């Protein structure tokens, strides 16, 4: 660079070298000199070795590589790890924050943050491993003694759900399940269970839940827009649902007898020991417990769920015996017959459906609203017995006709007796009766029975 500058100066006209350079020439020389010094400066920089970057110290985050380390209230940090996944909870920017990390590499997988700062006042503690529901998670935070706050973690948002109560030691009984597109936050020992949409919006409140041990069905009940709601799910997918037409008054009076009443708020419509569900040929009869007591579960109403509609029937009792009856009807308490729409068809005096002190009735099948066909044998104080069939009138409590199944002959009284109605053609029934002795020997009789006359035709 210097030699180039000297060469340029030597090539100037001789007159210019001998005389003082004019003003413009001095400017040119000054500019060339400035370029020279700039070039020398760049050459000097190329010789400097840069210092290496100092790695960020993640020790305050437990060694986990939090992507954005700014804005955390470090006093709120909580950690939880399970298998290969770690979770961090904190308040960040005055909002609840959750982070999920790979517990092996310590790298952050994803994070969720509440949309508002209203939750940041809680002195919370992380309850444990979050529940995974589809591509979402539900986390529980303990925000006060026996008070818990669930959060729905979806995409990048931590959606605050309704607070839940649970006594000390029972917080581990919380569960979260997916039902169709909805999410059930459930505790088996406390009221207030809720069914949420995938966006965290309350859909059904005061939810009660029961599995069907004999099928893949699951039953849910609750209140939807202040109306009674009942849903039938199969493998988590909604198959049927019924909603009452009118708002249900949850403030009721329970008749305790002797002119005394108890005012009570219906917290849930539960599936209890003495209540539950009757499957019919046209739908269901749902008869929930609304209050447990020493006398059993109090049942305030039955709900006939038929054709997408729900028909309520007041019962007001601590025990309810209902069964499928004649021509699609339902018999309640052995004395009231209801239509599939919940209308009273007939009522007679309470009775035991023809149970006999001397005879054991092993089959009762209605042939009309007020008549049953009974199959009986002697009780255990006899040595041998025969199988007898009769037609019993529930109103008069009298037998209208009686006949023995002669094809079975005498049977040991400790045998197992089973009767099946294989088909019905008006008043002609096709039946099968089997008798299995204690030693395992079996006798079977198939016959047609005229339910009007008692005539038997053996097949």
Question: Any chance you could write out the topology, listing elements then pairs?
Answer:
Layout (H helix, E strand, L loop, with lengths): L1 H9 L3 H5 L4 H23 L26 E11 L2 E8 L2 E8 L5 E6 L11 E2 L4 E3 L2 E9 L2 E8 L2 E4 L3 E2 L9 E5 L2 E5 L7 E3 L5 E10 L5 E8 L2 E8 L2 E7 L7 E7 L2 E6 L10 E4 L3 E5 L11 E8 L2 E9 L4 E3 L5 E3 L3 E3 L5 E4 L11 E8 L4 E8 L5 E2 L2 E6 L4 E7 L6 E2 L3 E10 L2 E9 L5 E9 L5 E3 L1
Antiparallel strand pairs: 1-2, 2-3, 3-4, 5-7, 6-7, 7-8, 8-9, 8-10, 11-12, 12-13, 13-14, 14-15, 15-16, 16-17, 18-19, 20-21, 21-22, 22-23, 24-25, 25-26, 26-27, 28-29, 29-31, 30-33, 31-32, 34-35, 35-36, 36-37
């Amino acid at each position: 660079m210097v030699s180039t500058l000297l060469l340029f100066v030597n090539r100037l006209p001789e007159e210019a070298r001998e005389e003082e350079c004019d003003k413009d020439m001095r400017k040119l020389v000054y500019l060339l000199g400035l370029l020279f010094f700039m070039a020398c400066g760049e050459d000097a920089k190329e010789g400097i070795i840069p210092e290496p970057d100092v790695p960020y110290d993640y020790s305050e985050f437990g060694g986990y590589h939090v992507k954005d380390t700014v804005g955390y209230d470090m006093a709120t940090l909580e950690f939880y790890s399970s298998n290969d996944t770690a979770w961090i909870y904190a308040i960040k920017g005055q909002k609840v924050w959750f982070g999920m990390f790979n517990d092996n590499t310590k790298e952050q997988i994803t994070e969720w943050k509440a949309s508002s700062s209203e939750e940041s006042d809680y002195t919370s503690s992380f309850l444990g491993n979050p529940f995974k529901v589809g591509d979402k998670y539900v986390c529980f935070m303990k925000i006060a003694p026996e008070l818990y706050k669930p959060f729905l973690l979806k995409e990048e948002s931590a959606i605050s759900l309704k607070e839940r109560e649970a006594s000390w030691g029972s917080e581990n009984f919380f569960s979260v399940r997916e039902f169709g597109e909805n999410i059930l936050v459930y505790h088996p020992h406390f009221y207030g269970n809720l069914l949420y949409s995938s966006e965290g919006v309350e859909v059904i409140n005061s939810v009660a839940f029961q599995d069907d041990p004999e099928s893949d069905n699951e039953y849910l009940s609750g209140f939807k827009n202040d109306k009674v709601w009942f849903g039938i799910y199969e493998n988590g997918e909604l198959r049927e649902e019924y909603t009452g037409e009118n708002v249900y008054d949850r403030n009721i009076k329970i008749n305790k007898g002797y002119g005394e009443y108890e005012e009570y708020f219906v917290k849930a419509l539960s599936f209890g020991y003495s209540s539950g569900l009757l499957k019919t040929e046209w739908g269901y009869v749902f008869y929930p417990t609304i209050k447990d007591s020493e006398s059993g579960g109090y049942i305030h109403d039955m709900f006939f769920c038929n054709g997408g509609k729900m028909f309520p029937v007041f019962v007001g009792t601590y025990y309810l015996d209902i069964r499928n009856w004649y021509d699609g009807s339902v018999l309640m308490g052995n004395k009231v017959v209801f239509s599939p729409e919940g209308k009273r068809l007939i009522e007679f005096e309470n009775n035991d459906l023809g149970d006999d002190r001397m005879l054991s009735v092993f089959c009762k099948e209605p042939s009309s609203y007020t008549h049953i066909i009974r199959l009986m044998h002697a009780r255990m104080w006899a040595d041998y017995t025969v199988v007898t069939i009769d037609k019993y009138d529930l109103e008069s409590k009298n037998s209208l006709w009686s006949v023995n199944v002669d094809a079975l002959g005498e049977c040991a009284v400790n045998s197992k007796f089973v009767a099946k109605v294989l088909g019905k053609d008006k008043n002609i029934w096709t039946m099968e009766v089997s008798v299995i002795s204690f030693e395992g020997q079996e006798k079977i009789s198939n016959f047609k029975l005229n339910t009007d006359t008692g005539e038997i035709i053996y097949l």
